[in-house]
Each structure stands twice: as structure tokens, then as C-alpha cells.
Amino acid sequence: MLRVLFIFAHFLGVLSLTFVLPALAASMAGEPELVTSFVITGVLGLFVSGSLVLGLRGREQRLKRHERYLLAALLFIGLPIFAAIPIGLSVPQTAPIDAYFEAVSALTTTGSSVLPRNEQLPVAILFWRCFLQWMGGGLSLLVAVLLLGPAGVGGLPPTNMRIAEHGRVSEQSRLYETLSRLLPVYFFATLLCFGALVMTGTPSFDALGLSFAALSTGGFIIRSTDFVEYVPLGSTWIFTIFMLFGATNILWQRAVAERRWNIVRANHETAWLFALAAGLGLIIAGNLFRLGGDSLLRSLTDGFFTAASLISTTGVESRTGSFGVLPITALLIILIVGGGAFSTAGGIKLFRFGAMIVQAYRELNRLVYPHGVRRARFGSQPYDMQMMKAIWSAMTVSLMLICIVIGVLTAEHFGFEDAVVLTVATLSNAGTAYQPSVIDTGDFTPIAALSPLAKFTLCALMVLGRLEILALASLLRVSTWRR
After folding, report:
1. Total domains present in the chain
2. pLDDT for residue 164
3. Is pLDDT at 377 greater than 80 in this prediction?
4. Cβ neighbours of 63 (radius 10 Å)
5. What does the buried/exposed string (b/e) look like for 464-475 if buried means 16 or more CB atoms within 10 Å of the residue's CB?
6. How many whole angstroms separate alpha carbon 52 and alpha carbon 57?
7. Residue 316, domain member (yes or no)
8. C-beta of residue 217 within 8 angstroms of C-beta of residue 246
9. What pLDDT digit, counting tens, does each position of 321-359 carry?
10. What is the pLDDT of residue 166?
């Protein structure tokens, strides 16, 4: 446990240093009281972080597998405590649970909010939510590749990254090595998106928030008005492309950046992701063109935007009601499947869905050819029985968790359809997909109206959705801690 706290302290120190950025934003926006809130919180975080590092010096040993799972959980549970402090201090009449909910939602890239509309919030808070969301996207990639991927949790495919694993290498060295390989791709993709948005006519501050949202596939942006009202047509296509890029495997992105085309071509999951986005985009565009009376170009733009937003679990609507053109069942299935493995997108991941389809097809063939021998592959990814057991276990636990949370929400006098949509959207880290246009009954209940217990439940669901449920479930076993 002490080794976990030692590593956690380093992450807390980095988070505390970033408080200077929203403090600068507050200073530039003429919000001096927010400057004080962010500076004080940053100093507090540095004090706690420094105390832990100094007090636990000498705990640089390698983490065991269950300690890595615990670290992953602690990062998404503990860091929002400090990230929530300036939100609670700066937004009037914000309860501690609401501030914590907002911070967890940002760090897990869920995008659900219990605060007033964006236009009523201080500029520094808008920037902080977007930036925290972007950091959460990077943290998700790091946790998936470094902490969860090597163990194959939930049937995760191998990362094929040559990270030193022998005992002489400290956990910090492995951490820094992974950061140096992955985060430059994430950072420069964000920078490229920002530049493209600005060049196509989007205001700089809006472009910054949108670039953070696109690569982290999160739902927090600067404005709450319809996207089409302030973003030019060209910028809409740029945002669509980068949402899909954010939903792809970070290792595939790194291969693209390094021009390793054999690896790029071998990743069939990404090809299927783009193909599904294209097909779904055409279907949505056809519905919009038929129902809305817009031009063909506008319908195609909104159609592909909506498809990319749902598949990447970003959950941003191009205009109010665009999610409503899909049947609610189809929308929920898209959110549950989500994006690619080792990406910032939520959901069970496309490779797991493909594995289940492949296995179902093999079982049907077995009825016709009982003694036939066929390879089990989804693109270039082979599947063995051990991986399939892990995938089905992850899917089963996810469905059980959905049922439990739906029960908690309906016990809070929440409408059943509202509870189903909100639960699936939250577990898939696509909280902004919970919109009035999606609920057929017309009886929409905002998240802010929920009790503190329900909000805590949703916070836990966001963290479980961002991490692998089986990894966290293993921490509840007594035998795990006896090793």
C-alpha cells in the first residue's frame, strides 16, 4: 500500500503544478477570486504530494499486479478530490458532492455535469474542466497500456511495447518510459487539432476546448449552445475526424506517427471502426435529410459528426435532437460497444464485440460441421479460449453492474427509461449522451436532481467504466492481498 501511495504522490504533484494554468486563465479573464482558489489548491496539493514523497522515500520497488490495479483506482478516485476544490470554492451553491462529481466526470472523460449552463460559469472553471478532461484522457491511456494491458485484464490484447519488466527497473522508470512513448503522440495530435480548428475559423478559446474534447473523447466543451451555431462547417469536419482519431488505438496512432505501415495495416480494428462510422454516418445523414429538410451537405456533416460522437463516446450533439434520430436501442448498443482498445473512448471496446461475434459464428458453424477446425481471428487478432473467457466475464460483469445501478436509480424515483440511458451512458463514459431528445417518454430528469447517494453511485460507475471492472473486482478478494 505504501508503494502505491508513493507513486500516487508523483501524480498528485503533477496535477498540483497544472493548477497554474487555470489560475492564468482566471487572471486573463478578470476573475481574481478564482486565481486565489486555484493557487491555494495547487499549494495544498504540492504540500501533500511532497510530504508523501519525502515520508515514503525508499519505496521505489516494483509494484505487484494487484498494487497496479489499486493504483489505477486510486488515481481516478483520489485525484478528483483535489481537482474538485476550486470548483466547489468558485461556483456558488455547489455542494461538495457536486464538485466531486464534476471532477470525476472530467477526469474519466464522461462529460456529465450537475453545474449550471456553461454560459453561467466562470471562464477559469470552463477551462479547468476541459483541461482536466484532457489530462484524464492521457491518464486513461497510461493506465491501460502500463497497468492493465500487460495483465490482459478482461481479454485486453497484448500491447507489444518493449517496456523493461525485470526487477531492477523501478516503477517510476517504467512510468516515464511509457509516458515518453505515448504522450507525445497524444499532445501533438491535440496541437494539430487546435491549429486546424483555428485555421478553419473557430475562435481560439473554443478551439482549445474542442481540441481537448476531441482527443480525450470527452463531453466537456466551452459552450452549451448548439454546435452548429458557433462552429464553421470546416471546423465541424475537423472535429469529427479527430473524434474518430481519438477513438483509435494509441499504439496504432504511434505507428502512424512513426510511419510503420505494416503495423498500421495489421490493425483491422481501426479499419472496422472507420467503416462503422461511415456506415452509421450515412444512415443518420439520410434520416436527417428526410426529416429535417436541411441541405445534403449539412445533413452529411451532422450525420458523420453524430456517428463519430457516438462511436467515440464523446457524446456531443451537433444540434439539439440529433441523437433522437436513432432508435434508443441502437444508440445504447453503439455506446456499449464504444471505440478501439487502448484508446480514450469508453465502452467494452470494438475488439471485444468482434471477438464475441466471431465466437458466435464459430459456434453456429460447429452445428453444421461438428469436427471442423477453424482459426478464431478478428482481423489480425487471434483469440484463444482463455481470452474469450476473460472477454465474456467482463461483458457479464458489466451487464450485472448495469442492472444494479438501474435498480439504485429507480429506487430514487427515477424513470426506468431515464435510468437505463443514464446508466449505459455513464458506464460508457459518454454522459452527455443522456439528453432529453433521447428519452421517448418526455419525462426527463436532470442529474442535478439526484440524491447524494445516486451521485456517488454514478461517480463509482464512471471510474468502473474508465477502468477494467474485472481488475477492480479482483481487489475485493481476500486471496489477492495474501500473495
Report:
1. 1
2. 44
3. no
4. 18
5. bbbbbbbbbbbe
6. 8
7. no
8. yes
9. 888 889 999 999 999 999 988 899 999 888 888 888 878
10. 44
Task: Specify the amino acid at residue 76.
Answer: F
Residue 89 counted as domain residue: no
Question: Any idea which of 127-141, 167-181, 423-437 has the lowest mean pLDDT?
Answer: 167-181
Which cell is 290 given? 428526410
- In a domain, residue 384? The reply is yes
- Could you tell me the three cell numbers for 207? 478551439
Cell numbers for 193, please give them. 487539432
Q: Return the number of other C-beta atoms located less than 10 Å from residue 97's C-beta.
A: 19
Cβ–Cβ under 8 Å, residues 160 and 250: no
Q: Using H for helix, E for strand and C for coil, what is the string for the chain?
A: CHHHHHHHHHHHHHHHHCCHHHHHHHHHCCCHHHHHHHHHHHHHHHHHHHHHHHHCCCCCCCCCHHHHHHHHHHHHHHHHHHHCHHHHHHCCCCCHHHHHHHHHHHHCCCCCCCCCCHHHCCHHHHHHHHHHHHHHHHHHHHHHHHHHHHHCHHHCCCCCCCCCCCCCCCHHHHHHHHHHHHHHHHHHHHHHHHHHHHHCCCCHHHHHHHHHHHHHCCCCCCCCCCHHHCCCHHHHHHHHHHHHHHCCCHHHHHHHHCCCHHHHHHCHHHHHHHHHHHHHHHHHHHHHHHHHCCCHHHHHHHHHHHHHHHHCCCCCCCCCCHHHHCCHHHHHHHHHHCCCCCCCCCCCCHHHHHHHHHHHHHHHHHHHCCCCCCCCEECCEECCHHHHHHHHHHHHHHHHHHHHHHHHHHHCCCCHHHHHHHHHHHHCCCHHHCCCCCCCCCCCCCHHHCCHHHHHHHHHHHHHHHCCHHHHHHCCCHHHHHC
329 phi-psi bin (left φ>0, alpha ψ -120 to 50, beta other): alpha
Residue 168 has pLDDT above 90, yes or no: no
- For the chain, how many residues are written? 483
Cβ contact 9:49 at 8 Å: yes
**pLDDT value at position 401?**
92
Residues in contact with 348: Cβ distance below 8 Å, sequence separation at least 6, in sequence order: 336, 337, 338, 394, 395, 398
The total of other beta-carbon atoms located within 10 Å of residue 273's CB is 26
Considering the chain, what is the average pLDDT of its residues?
A: 87
By the 10 Å C-beta count (0-12 exposed, 13-18 middle, 19+ buried), 309 is classed as buried
Domain assignment present for 412: yes
Q: Which residues span the domain enclosing 425?
A: 380-482
- Beta-bridge partners for 377: 382
Each residue's pLDDT tens digit, 427-471: 999 998 898 777 766 677 889 889 999 999 999 999 999 987 777
Report, as an integer, the average pLDDT of 123-132. 96
- Residue 449 identity: A
**Nearest-angstrom CA–CA distance, 41 and 23:** 10
Closest to 471 (Cα-Cα) out of 383, 382, 397, 384: 397
Instruction: Report which of 180, 218, 220, 213 is spatially closest to residue 194, judged by C-alpha positions.
Output: 213
